[in-house]
Amino acid sequence: MDGVKVTLDGMRGGIEGPKEVGLKNVSSHCSISEMDDYDLSKLLDKPRLNIKREKSFDERSLSELSIGLARGLENYESSYSPGRSVLDTPASSARNSFEPHPMVADAWEALRRSLVHFRGQPVGTIAAYDHASEEVLNYDQVFVRDFVPSALAFLMNGEPDIVKNFLLKTLQLQGWEKRIDRFKLGEGVMPASFKVLHDPVRKTDTIIADFGETAIGRVAPVDSGFWWIILLRAYTKSTGDLSLAENPECQKGMRLILSLCLSEGFDTFPTLLCADGCSMIDRRMGIYGYPIEIQALFFMALRCALVLLKHDTEGKEFIERIVKRLHALSYHMRSYFWLDFQQLNDIYRYKTEEYSHTAVNKFNVIPDSIPEWVFDFMPTRGGYFIGNVSPARMDFRWFALGNCIAILSSLATPEQSSAIMDLIEERWEELVGEMPLKICYPAIESHEWQIVTGCDPKNTRWSYHNGGSWPVLLWMVTAACIKTGRPQIARRAIDLAESRLLKDGWPEYYDGKLGRYIGKQARKHQTWSIAGYLVAKMMLEDPSHLGMISLEEDKQMKPVIKRSSSWTC
Ligand code: GLC
């Protein structure tokens, strides 16, 4: 046997060091993640589609749930039941008197319409199925990041095959030789997207992948590899099928991604250095350096890889590197990216020109560079991970995806996670407004917009990536709400989405300070808006789904947030 086998038990939360993987974790205190492991393991030997749903959230006794969740349950309204599968098993509506929301059936239909087949097999979902739009642009492709909510919806609905096909197809694409002009890209790079070409005459299908070479601005899809690993864990956790992750090709795929992001360079920080536009925000938006979205996904992917890697000779070497990096990364993020009222006040009073061994102001941030808006925005209660930290530069903007993933991956401590939810509540109008959720806050305008975006006409203030509102983020905030025991916040956000999304034709994004207007150039029937809604609904109805996309805190990683202590110690 190649070392210790990764088992489902090894996936029970925490950053399991090598020795812990495979050990059964028996505890009388049942956390939500342990509970869903329990639920899932019970389901393993049965075909999931025909399974009657486990007790719904409101039917469970509070004692079955973690204290955090129970806190949120006090305000939790009775659940309505969209059902595991509207098309296949509309069973859940019989369990209580609440009919599924009419949008759910429409969403499933639209999601199925977006399926892309390769040689007869479904391998992904198209980014947007917008017939009314004249320009297809590249929205007829399967984007790796866009497929994640689709994949989760299919997994939650007991349809894992498409997810498996997608993981294997993208793995094959990773193996392609990738060149841009005369430059050969790293072996581990995963594509941003791929397209299936059907030749009706020859009756053949071919695939073309985009690794950034045809993307606007040739941006590097750094997030793709991370999402791929996160999805592999979600698939494994949901199905209990270890054979896919243990397959030598998947192990190699993971190692190739990890080689790219764990390689040593000239850097002095454990965070990952990136160019602009390397993630969901795939245009120039001043997020070069160490953007929160990538750091949070990096952290989560490392934690997922830790439980998926086999303990063979090659795997062990990576496991050691991951464990070291995770410790440094979590320390760095929790200490230097975290901002709350106290921290802001400290930075405001910073001295400059200190040498680093004794410096309190480690990055020599000049207090005058703190933007005015942040003083008003910062509530007394609440906090968040800021957008970016590098020498003399703190990007104070709020980014939704990075903060939600920080909660789900437990990069945020439980206190920080609660504080992020507090901030969302306190700044509801700014961050949620009339359509969840702002991709970032605030928008950049005028001269700053000219300089930072290069006068990008798509990213004008409060539009698209520049303060636009993206319905896809609903699933992430819902997951974060459930994890922090605040489902009532998710309920509020879903209500807002339900009042508009179907009527407006599932737009890609909304514009305006409150997110009231359908985005200037937004696609309609955007698949991840549709899938994101379904995932949010299914998770709220049955929170045991959360385990697929959430990791419990690792108790070994002590949060040390004393700014005066050196981060090297
Ligand atoms: C836009 C978004 C990107 C998304 C793509 C396909 O380029 O910025 O995040 O993956 O559209 O929907």
From TrEMBL:
Catalysed transformations (reactions): Hydrolysis of terminal non-reducing beta-D-fructofuranoside residues in beta-D-fructofuranosides
Protein name: Alkaline/neutral invertase
PANTHER family named among the record's database cross-references: ALKALINE_NEUTRAL INVERTASE D-RELATED, PTHR31916
Naturally occurring in which organism (per UniProt): Penstemon davidsonii
Annotated keywords: Carbohydrate metabolism, Glycosidase, Hydrolase
Enzyme class (EC, first level): hydrolase
Documented EC number(s): 3.2.1.26
Coiled coil spans: none
InterPro entries: 6-hairpin_glycosidase_sf, 6hp_glycosidase-like_sf, Glyco_hydro_100
Task of the protein: Invertase that cleaves sucrose into glucose and fructose.
Pfam family name, one: Glyco_hydro_100
Similarity-based family: Belongs to the glycosyl hydrolase 100 family.
Hydrolase keyword on record: yes
